[in-house]
Amino acid sequence: MDFNLQGKSVIVTAASKGLGKATALEFAKEGAHVLISSRNESELEKAVDEIKTESGNEQVKFVTCDITNPKQIKALVQEAVNWNGMVDVLVNNAGGPPAGTFENFEDEDWQKAFELNLLSFIRTIREVLPYMKEQQSGRIINFASSSIKQTLDNLLLSNTFRAGIVGLAKSLSQELAPHHILINTLGPGRIGTDRVAHLDQVKADEMGVSAEEVKKKSESNIPMGRYGDPAEFARVAVFLASGANTYVTGQSLVVDGGLVKAL
Length: 263
Known about the structure:
- This is 3-oxoacyl-[acyl-carrier protein] reductase.
- One of its GO terms (biological process) is bile acid metabolic process.
- By secondary structure, the chain is an alpha/beta fold.
- The protein has 2 domains: 9-189 and 231-254, NAD(P)-binding Rossmann-like Domain (Rossmann fold), CATH 3.40.50; 191-227, no CATH class.
- The chain is 48% helix and 14% strand.
- The protein has helices at residues 18-29, 41-55, 70-84, 107-135, 156-176, 194-207, 211-220, 230-240; strands at residues 9-12, 33-38, 60-64, 89-92, 138-143, 181-188, 252-255.
- It has a 7-stranded parallel beta sheet, sandwiched between helices.
- Helix 1 packs parallel to helix 2, helix 3 packs parallel to helix 4 (107-135) and helix 4 (107-135) runs parallel beside helix 5 (156-176).
- The model has no long low-confidence stretch (mean pLDDT 96).
């Protein structure tokens, strides 16, 4: 299958590690021009070198960007345009908000989670849309969580704002379809990333057991019997963002090995 990504201009945010980095690597393997971002310059430099080495694609660059900062978002998108003349694909990604229940959070916590996990996506989409509309094509992929299908215990902030991402994407799919711009939401299940390892450790500390015990218990609830590999998630993202996808838009999909039981 030809994904038609050779030379395409791709932005992947929060891509110095984890799902963002894995997705950037898969795009690079397809010959895209990939611009990655995060707040950590040293981690970005390392990620770019590794992606270039593993993919054999030298067209990989980075921009340091705090995605809660609108000026830095504008600079990120402008760098992609200066480099490639356009933006063909935007992959919105962000770190997850703190774990906790309703009583754990004050207004400041809610505001920070809103800015990180919803408003940042709105701002990046706003910046790329003029270029996608001008060329009458584009793909937007929003990374969320399996909570887009089934809420997760002790992750109230994530449950709230990930749902907002789904509503945003579904609404935009209607508005953008006439411009041949497709937008979808992807939710990872238990994928082997630093974020999941951190959540396992938080739960382990609460229960007074080891993180490995928590992981084994989690794996026992996954029909496939294991955590996913970031590359398995990334390949789904690449398909949805590619020229091979011409009719899927406004959808929310979980990549979870069968974990989520909701329809």
